[in-house]
Amino acid sequence: MPDDANPNDEIRRNIVRWFYEQNRKALGMAGKKISEVQKGLRELHGYKKQIVNENLTYLIERDWITAEDVTKQVPTKSGMIRPNTTTFYKPSAKTIEQIEGGSTFAPRERYGDINISGQNVVNFGDGNIVNVNYQDAHQELRELRTAVADSSELTESSKLEVSVDLESIMDQLAKSQPNATVVDVLWKRSVEALQAAPGLVTVVEKCAPYVAALAAAAGS
Predict the structure, then answer these.
(1) Of 37, 35, 24, nearest to 100 (Cα)?
(2) Of 39, 88, 147, 201, whose Cβ has the fewest other Cβ atoms within 10 Å?
(3) What is the CATH topology of the domain spanning 8-100?
């Protein structure tokens, strides 16, 4: 993790380390219940439940900790069966790699074998690199891709096809001069598919000028 940027970072670091140690000593695959997490961190660091809960939520959202619901069918005294769900928490692969260091089994970065220093690009840390001249276009395309994934107006098949095309456009943004033909074809196909989702009109219109400028610059 980076150096402390806010007062909660030390707490989060301690929570992550606690989960790592619990996982290292575990005899089984199950994680820890919230009561076990709260008790363990109170005994080790004196953290109150509220502190644990709010920082655990953040760590889950950022993929440092995983949460898995396990449901069992429990018989009641009246002879009925009712479902009982328990959430178990474990350190993610991201946490383990952060503490132990890199692993042969970790996924490789898309351009990890290429020296991109001095290439006028920005590494987003998710496998994507972008030429500094196209950062705004990349941001708008990412927002559109997210909106597509969240849309209730598109089928899952349409979401996948449009998302792949948007990713392909973003791949072009690593170049100093993107291929104008590729960008134009992929964008037109995406816009056509997104006509089935009126709720995305605003985000498409917001993105369109950036893509148009990109295609124009690439074709110049």
Answers:
(1) 24
(2) 201
(3) Arc Repressor Mutant, subunit A (1.10.10)
Number of CB atoms found within 10 A of residue 132's CB: 9
What is the value of pTM for the model shown? 0.52
Question: What percentage of the chain carries pLDDT values higher than 70?
Answer: 85
One-letter amino acid at 200 equals L
Burial label, 35 (beta-carbon count in 10 A; 0-12, 13-18, 19+): exposed
Q: Are 215 and 184 in contact (CB under 8 A)?
A: yes
Range name among 25-34, 64-73, 160-169, 201-210 with the lowest pLDDT average:
25-34
Tens of pLDDT, residues 177-186: 889 999 999 9
Half-sphere exposure in the Cβ direction for 100 (13 Å, CA): 16
- 42-to-4, 31, 56, 84, 171 alpha-carbon distances in Å: 22, 18, 14, 26, 47
CATH 1.10.10.10 domain span(s) along the chain? 8-100
Structure tokens at 164: 């792949």
